Amino acid sequence: MPVECDSLAAASYGSAVIVAGGSDRKKPLDNTSLFDWEERAWRKLAPMVTPRAYPCGTMDKSRARLLVAGGFNNKELDSVEIFDVKTERWLKGPAMPTARTKSGGAIVGDYFAVAGGDAFGRPTDALECLNLKTGKWETFPAMNSKRRRCAVVAVGEKLVVAGGLTLGDYSLDTIEMFDLRNRRWLDLPNMPCTRFGCGACVINSRMFLCGGNEKLRMKAYSNRLDSFDLMSHSWDILPSMAQRRIHPAAVSLSL
Fold this sequence. Notes:
0% of the residues lie in helices and 42% in strands. By secondary structure, the protein is mainly beta. InterPro entries: F-box/Kelch-repeat (IPR052439), Kelch-typ_b-propeller (IPR015915), Kelch_1 (IPR006652).
């Protein structure tokens, strides 16, 4: 990568990976870069308006837009920035109802859903969704657990939230799924171990979790790679990554 960092927003579009924000462990960053898988090369893009560590981000592929929400820059942020992939420009989006950092985001149906995170310095169970048709935020039923640094993915009209840290900095192994159709949360089978700060992506109907931390210790940084079948609700433990990572970005590519 052009800049060494963690806790960044990342998403894919076609054969490209776009990363934005993050932290170099000293300060929040406004950097935006694109990796072209076919050319195997990075190039810098226009920086964000606001440097931010621990934002959540996802790609609205139908509109070719990267949405980045919240994060931290001396305080928890409620601002939203939208990167137009075609014009390669950042646009201002409607602010979230709740300023927060260390949340997770995904496109579920016609919504940009933001779940969990830190609000006022404490883990939250909030689920707030930006209606991509009206451009307005809506508040949906809260999660069963308050959690920050959780993994969030979506498949169709279902949002899945896994792991994270809850009140008292207890690491979670629980998973819950929000069904957009009936607006209800359901519990899914627990992860193989407690985990927070991991990367997550979906390939077909499988959720992949990589890296993270199993306990609040430096030596607990993980190189685990697990997958969860969202149809059969079964877990598979896959070969470990070469390096241990916390707060990595994970995306799936269409090649």
